[in-house]
Amino acid sequence: MTTGPGAVSEFDRDIAVSREGDHFSGELKDGWRVGGGVNGGFQLSLLGNAIRAALPDHPDPVAVSAYYISPAVAGPARVDVRPLRTGGRTATVAADLRQGDDVRLSVLATYGDLAAFPSDDVRTTAEPVVLPPRDECVANTLAPEEIKEMAPFTQRFEMLFHPDEVGWAVGKPSGRGQISAWFRLADDREPDPLALLMAVDALPPVTFDLGLPGWAPTVELSAHVRAKPAPGWLRLRHRTRNVAGGFFEEDCEVWDSADRLVAQSRQLALLPR
Amino acid sequence: MTTGPGAVSEFDRDIAVSREGDHFSGELKDGWRVGGGVNGGFQLSLLGNAIRAALPDHPDPVAVSAYYISPAVAGPARVDVRPLRTGGRTATVAADLRQGDDVRLSVLATYGDLAAFPSDDVRTTAEPVVLPPRDECVANTLAPEEIKEMAPFTQRFEMLFHPDEVGWAVGKPSGRGQISAWFRLADDREPDPLALLMAVDALPPVTFDLGLPGWAPTVELSAHVRAKPAPGWLRLRHRTRNVAGGFFEEDCEVWDSADRLVAQSRQLALLPR
Fold first, then answer.
1. What pLDDT score was predicted for residue A129?
2. Is A75 helix (H, G, I), strand (E, B) or coil?
3. All domains in chain A, ordered by first residue
């Protein structure tokens, strides 16, 4: 693994896209696979990187809504970006990620320059995610080898679970519908708005904590990036409060090392069968 | 006002669309105006009605994400619906609402048949919106005449505000960032999934309760319709927990008369200047 000054992190290497005429090309690497599919948050980071390239004056995702059309597989991917409104403080685009003729992911997104937004009025009544010290949490590196092979995605970051919310790993879910963890990308790659698009879909499905293991396909995921994250560890939390009709909503909050709520997301997902 | 058996409610009359070749036509009526623009939730109901017409096997919105591109005005509108995936339990489309050459609203949406979804596993830990009896709440009909003229939208329904959360109307906002109310469409039109798309954007901006009156333009609104609402009054609640960067998130919950959480939405909006 390459680290050190000047080295490119695996995350940056893997979300890279190149412009080819009217579209962008990239590759969904096998390392981001979960079972037969590729993690939806990672797809969003790669697609989000293409949008950033298409909008030089608006480098950061502010609001992104993703609809997952068909399961992505490891291999080449193409991103098309279509501007809907540009100019001013924000720009809005439609974008699709395709493999061959199949749309994997269709997105609407508003981008802006988070550093240029006013920073003097922050009123957050949401309460930060509280986690025990990292050496008291349960590391993803402890996962069994068969999990690591089935889901190499889980090895792209350090994830240190709240010890009270990881009972599902040993068949004792809490039943509360909450999973939280410390989070840091491999290579100590610092968080940024594009990485947050992956972070909001990085934890296991919150249904694990309800005693429903198994894949929970995302129908729709909308994320708001509310500030550039400070360097260091992130804290992530998944929660659900409404399981019904064979679906559940999953809210994610991402807090940075400066105790700022930097991203909020909600997805609608299918209950595992 | 037409009422009685067989009468068409104003909501149904106003969201009506007709198919014209490859697109749908409708009209944004002046009655749904707020200041110079047309309420975003109403636009979504009209557009959502066109999607319903385009997807006869999938009549109900399940997840809808709307990006507001330019302010809509009273007058004719056109809706284009482009299928992304059809067949199976749900279908996903992209749709745009245009006036002339201008896109007002661009949407991604997943539709299904809510009545056909499994109903045996409902686990809602969210707590219902609690409101005093309706005769102890503050009715929207009490609004000054100049408000009714500026925002005829507010007269399309009965809205009975929680008396502790309506101080903004007399210059005494609570500062908590919460507004809740009883809600019922004019003509006693019963709630359904399309009406919920309007209901999630019907309350005043929650920033009123933070002492920030004024228009709060929606950047993005995503709504999940989780069940067909039971007949009768709805309870709506807006909340915000994170004001930052000149934006705020606004969560809406809609509870029906059977105490079911039938819709959840979140929007990102611009703070009033």
1. 97
2. strand
3. 10-113+129-270 (2.40.160.210)
How many beta carbons lie within 10 A of that of residue A208, not counting itself?
Answer: 23
What lies within 8 Å, CB to CB, of B244 at 6+ separation is A121, A122, A123, A124, A226, A227, A260, A261
A249–B224 C-beta distance less than 8 A: yes
* pLDDT score at B119: 86
The answer to whether the Cα torsion of B158, B38, B213, B204 is positive or negative is: positive
- How would residue A84 be classed by pLDDT, with cut points 50, 70 and 90? very high
Instruction: Flag if A69 and B85 touch (Cβ within 8 Å).
Output: yes
Do B261 and B253 meet the contact criterion of CB atoms below 8 Å apart?
yes
Query: Band of the pLDDT at A165, cuts 50, 70, 90?
Result: very high
Can you tell me the distance from the alpha carbon of A214 to that of A226, in angstroms, rounded to the nearest whole number? 31
ipTM of this predicted structure: 0.96
Q: Please classify residue B135 by burial: count the beta carbons closer than 10 Å to its beta carbon, then call 0-12 exposed, 13-18 middle and 19+ buried.
A: exposed
Q: Which helix H or strand E contains A197, and what residues bound it?
A: helix A193-199
A44 vs A109: CA distance, rounded Å: 11
With residue A110 as reference, give the H or E element that holds it: strand A102-112
CB contact under 8 A, B246 and A117: yes
For strands B218-225 and B178-185, give the pairing: unpaired
Optimal mutation site among B247, B252, B261, B271, interface A, most CBs of chain A within 10 A: B247
- Cβ(A33)–Cβ(A153) below 8 Å: yes
SS3 string, A112-131, reads ECHHHCCCCCCEECCCCCCC
Per-residue pLDDT reduced to its tens digit, A121-161:
899 999 999 999 999 999 999 999 999 999 999 999 999 99
CA dist list (Å): A178 to A141, A207, B13, B242: 21, 8, 44, 20
Cβ B92–A69 below 8 Å, yes or no? yes
Question: Which residues in chain B have their CB less than 8 angstroms from residue A103's CB?
Answer: 84-85
Contact B229, B192 (CB under 8 A): yes
Query: Mind listing the pLDDT tens digit for each residue in B192-220?
Result: 999 999 999 999 999 999 999 988 999 99
What gap in Å lies between CA B225 and CA A268, rounded to an integer?
10
- What backbone torsions phi and psi does residue B13 show, to the nearest 5 degrees? -65, -40
- Kindly state the helix (H) or strand (E) to which residue B195 belongs, with its residue range: helix B193-199
